[in-house]
Every structure is written in structure tokens, then in C-alpha cells.
Amino acid sequence: MISELYFHEGRTGGRKVYTVLRQAADGYTERAFSINAGGGSIGEYSVADSDGKLVNPLWTPHWRQIEPHRFDAANTDHTNLYGAGCDGPLLSGISGANTCFPVFGGDTDGALGGAHGEANIVEWEHPVFNSGQNILSVRAGLPKTQWSIIRKFTFSGSLSFVTIKDSYLNLSAGAKNVTYAQHVTLGWPFLENARIYMPDNICGHTFPLDFFEPEAGGENLQRLMKDQTFVYPYAPGKHGEVIALDLFPTQPQSDCTTQFYLPNDPNLSSDQKNDIWFAAFDRGSGVLLGCIWPKRDFPFLVRWVENLARQQSPWCDAQGEPATRALGLELSNTPFPIGLDYALEHPVFAGYPTYRAVGPGETFTTEFKMFAFPMPEAKTYDNFEVLNVVNRGHDVQVDTSATVRPEAR
Fold this sequence. Notes:
mainly beta, Beta-galactosidase, Chain A, domain 5, 8-stranded antiparallel beta sheet, 7-stranded antiparallel beta sheet, globular
């Protein structure tokens, strides 16, 4: 077949970027999907709105970035900007959706690569694009933790759906326990008028530990009550109030995490038991972005919010004022990004295992699907229906009619 998609290699902000484009007959770009060579993150999944302007819902940090594998802990310019701790390499090149592996959070001493593992701070190899099958393949070696990752992107002809399959090979002579996540992060201004949709029966649980930012004067910036179960989208606030989580907050805050999961109920239908999804719709641009994935690979969805709360670099602007707005929706095999030790101490949550054991020389795979659509006709939430979007490229029937919520923040 003749591919309608085109592969392009270039540089953005001094960083090497690989992009798959869909162009109209007149050369006008309708969609763009980009991955960064440094860290392998998906930095862009842009869709043209009704005015022809490309809208990228994914988070692009405001600070100057470098290739994360070039971060140098002995370079004070690097440590002053990105931090001297385990976050430094990650923050030097983070954007969009990144792979957290072989640990999701809690690696404070860098033994497993960094704050969210090694996969998002190494250089990924040059990808191979098969234009006949619309498949982009790329590999990364993790020398410190002894893993190999092969990632395969399969694009629909319209670039409306992307299936992402990862194969992880344990290169060591011993068994390993891992926690992992696909850290999909949405950014501003997409979030300003966006609503987040999830399945009706999805449960939530707030962060089980105290959370505060010492750089912000030691104030507890988490607005949710600690260690509480709820049903999305309404969660218990730490002062007894009810907080809607389907809209981005208006007040400054830095929520650590709230995680969501489908009940592990044998009476559920096979569709409800096997698939989870979220969709974010920005009524300002009419653009929708979401993910759908098998629960066997990622039983949890972790939510992280940063809204003008962190005052330290690189989260602040040049004047030292908080400047970051971002929302992480993170597909994960563990409920909280607290680290592997916590998962081993709490091996089961809500009926699901909280880590994965992988034998020497063993390979395991995970898969998820991203989708992005322009929906210029849906300028209000009343006429919005995620079901029609998800079913364009997925055979799971998802009833989302009851997920429309009143206008409240």
C-alpha cells in the first residue's frame, strides 16, 4: 500500500527528534507524532484543530532542556537548573509521555537509574520506519540495570491511533522485581478547558503517606485526605470538602498521586475486567487525547498534579515564581510511585500484585494504545461521547454516557 505517513528526523531545541507525520494532499500537516532520542519520550501527539492549528496536548516543560544522557552531576550549570538529586537527569529531558522502568518512583539513590528508572534517561537507538506497514521500531539498552527494551509503534493510516508494544528483556543472570509506568503528562494550555473522562465504575485511592514540598516552606500541598478510597471523579479533601478531579484545579497545589483501578470483581463483564481507558477533551480547541490498555499490563492509573506550587528550579521561572502546570495520567503496574521497597512490603493492593518478578533471560511485553482526534463539533460537554471515539480503533464497547459531570471546579 502507499503510506500516507512520513518519517522525519530533525532537532527541536537542540535535541534529536524523530517524527511521523500525516499530511493532506496540499502538504498541510494534519497530525504529528514525535519521540525524543534522549529518554525515548513521546514529546508530541499533535492534531490540527478546526482552524488548522496543530494542538499538542502533551506537556512541554518551559525550561531549557538537554539530552538526559548528557546530564553531568559534576556540572553546576546542570545541577543548579535541574537539581543535584536523582531527579536531575530525568528533569533535564522530560516531556510528554515517558517510560518509567525498571522502577516507578522512589529510587532516591539512583541505584535503579534515577527517580523513575533508567529508561527515560538513556539514549535510544535510531528507529526503523516501515512505511509499508506504518510501524516504527526503536530499541534502548539500559547498561546500569541490565535490561533491553524494544518498542514498536503501529500507526493507523490516519495517525488517529497508535498501538505501542514494549518488550523488556532481563539481561542479568539473576531474577529481578520491577515496577513500571507509562507516564502520560498533559500540559498547558490544553488543560485550561479540559475535562478528564474515565470508566464509570473506576475506584480511586488517595496517596497513603504524608506529602509536602520543603522548598515551599514545608506546607502540605496535597489537597486530598490521606489514604482514602472513593469513586471517580469526587474525592475527599483534606479539610472534609468534596473535590472534583475531572477538571484541572484552579488553586496552586502539588498533589503527589491518586490512583485508580477497576474493581477486581468476577461478576464484571470481560470488557470491564480487561480494559481501562481515559480521555481528555479540551473544549477550547475541540481536541481529544486518550489511552486505552489491558488491565493485565497496567492495573492502575496514577494521577499527579502540579499547578503553580513548586518553587524550586526547574519548576519555577527566571524570577523564582512557580511556573509549571501539568497533569500526569500514568498507566502503572503499581498503585503508588513510592519505590520498589514499598511495593515489596505491600505486595497486593485491591486484589492486584504491586510489582512484577522477571527471571534471568526472561522477556515480558506490555501494550497500550494512544488516540487523538479533532472534535470541533463538540464545543460543549453535553454532546460529548468518548464511546464513538474509542470504538473507531478498538473493539471494546465502553459506555461513557454517565461520565458527563456538572460544570464545577
